[in-house]
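Example record used in the benchmark description.
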Amino acid sequence: MTVFQAIVLGAIQGLSEFLPISSSAHLYLSRRVLGWPEPGLAFDVALHLGTLAAVLTYFRAEWWRLLLATMRVVRGGRMETPDERRVGLLVVATVPAVVGGLLLADYAETVFRHPAISAATLIVFGLLLWAVDRAAPRDRSLVEMGWGSALAIGVAQVLAFVPGVSRSGATMTAGRMLRFDRESAAVFSFLMSMPAIAGAGILEVPHLLSTSESLLPLLAGIVSSALAGWAAIAVLLRYVSRHSYGVFAVYRILAGLFVIALLVYRG
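Model output (structure tokens):
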């Protein structure tokens, strides 16, 4: 793994983690098209640390308020303010991912990894994102989210264990299906990504610490992933405040067709 390869893959991870287009599918595509070797588990962990840094720094003011709210909830045992309630909503939304991780982790690393599955999920969930975003009203904001809605979006996140689905794509689609406006669906998706990314990173940190690989490509990947992730969050929130998710749906369909063409061409 060269520093240049690490920077490119880090940028792809950062952009595709937060845009609703599937990071796992894009990392596979980039390595397949460029002919680069599998970077290994330690590098995957490094990229996730980069995207974690992106969501923590972009929403740093929000996370600080949520941290203070968490401390108040622990001390008082009540959720009275909007920030305290949001802490509870994020916990509820995270539970399905924890359960799904325990049940599906082995499948996610083996059975679900076939490129044909990624192609199909890119296309199907692209069509679903387009249809839901086009048809669903946008008459709910983030402050109106209830426990049932948080749980439903959390369940949608479990689908992302299948490469090609996209964690952000599934959760944003669920948010729009529940009539939240596009920006609210995106913000909640980004906030709930932190526990999921942090959990995955913590579980794999021992692999990172035990690696014998050069630290320079790992650091380059982390920085590249963090910067690209920060940019992806900023651009998407600005974009969806004025436009639909349609462009991402079209992109997903084209990417899925490209994977199919690649499989046919290379056998």
